[in-house]
Design goal:
Length: 300
């Protein structure tokens, strides 16, 4: 059996690659910073010296790198995947990449005989470790069928959203919803606190009603505890909102909630919180309201 390729062993890629290995698939991995491949090597994976070397031996290659530029470099750089890829190989981009870049990359890869699937995820680092990610897939059905057993190792939900780029569109929609809801949760809990009502009790009351959301539950807990250990880092949330904003601008789409979330996320990163969980957005709201940081309280 050809080894499965995995390129990009960051916060997300490392545990995902490990899950494929644990499921019994032979693996060949590459990471730009070689030291990050060590745990996979210890667990039995082969380590390659370049994306090209991965492409030369694998017919299915996962990539999970930082952004559009990183995906382009891994695919088409001087030591890129395409330099060694056999015809009909499937490359699965599991990072969050812009839909338009994804479609362009898919066309370029097709010219070299390869197939690019976009399969971004929701569920964060915890979901990557547990193999419980939600995976949103774009690309041709036949290629998806070839990698479906592997995707099922990585996630609990795998949805074929549509043609190339459709998975990334779904992920952008996910970020629109998450950021708008996060702003609402941060505002509501700040409002309660300023009006002298315990925000922990407010959250508890609202969790049982129509305003329930997973964001109120999870991010609300982080806000109340004042614990912004990531989770999902503000710099990545900012990057994803940038993707939505650029796609929207190209089509003259007015997305006012996303525009506001983008500005608040910029302010959070400018305040030195790039590596904090994006729920720290509450601190920007508090500052706008002339309030001190949330004192930790027991979310129950
Ligand atoms: N973290 C989350 O909770 C989460 C959730 C959903 C989706 N995502 C998405 O998943 C992707 C990866 O996120 P992450 O949290 O795993 O990020 P990360 O920990 O910062 O890892 C980024 C990875 O990309 C590699 N990379 C960056 N630039 C590169 C380049 N020019 N060439 C080759 N490799 C390059 C890094 O290599 P080095 O080790 O050499 O720096 C590293 O392996 C992103 O698209 C992110 O938006 C993340």
């Amino acid at each position: 059996m050809d080894p499965i390729g995995f390129i990009g062993l960051g916060v997300m890629g490392q545990p995902m690659a490990m899950n494929l290995l644990k499921a019994g698939y032979p693996l060949i991995v590459y990471n730009r910073t070689a030291a990050r491949a060590a745990p996979l090597a210890e667990a039995g994976a082969q380590v390659a010296v370049s994306p090209r070397a991965v492409g030369a031996v694998s017919r299915v290659v996962f990539i999970n790198v930082a952004d559009d530029a990183a995906v382009e470099s891994v695919l088409f750089g001087p030591e890129g995947l395409v330099q060694g890829l056999a015809p009909d190989s499937v490359v699965v981009d599991m990072g969050t990449t812009s839909p338009s870049a994804t479609r362009a990359f898919a066309r370029r890869l097709a010219e070299q005989g390869g197939i690019l699937l976009d399969a971004p995820v929701s569920g964060g680092e915890a979901g990557a470790h547990a193999g419980t990610l939600s995976i949103m897939v774009g690309g041709p059905q036949a290629a998806i069928a070839r990698v479906l057993p592997l995707l099922k190792v990585l996630g609990k939900s795998v949805v074929h959203v549509g043609s190339s780029g459709a998975g990334q569109v779904a992920k952008a929609c996910n970020q629109i919803l998450v950021s708008a809801t996060l702003m609402g949760v941060a505002e509501a809990l700040t409002f309660a606190r300023r009006l002298g009502v315990d925000p922990a009790r407010v959250r508890e009351a609202l969790l049982g009603g129509f305003a329930y959301s997973r964001i109120l539950e999870v991010h609300g807990r982080r806000i109340l505890a004042g614990d912004f250990t990531p989770g999902f880092r503000a710099r990545l949330h900012q990057k994803d909102l940038g993707i939505v904003s650029r796609e929207a601008q190209a089509l003259n789409l007015a997305l006012p909630a996303t525009a506001l979330a983008t500005q608040l996320m910029n302010a959070l990163v400018a305040a030195g919180q790039a590596e904090s969980d994006s729920a720290a957005l509450v601190q920007v709201i508090e500052q706008l309201c002339g309030m001190a940081k949330t004192p930790p309280s027991d979310p129950g």
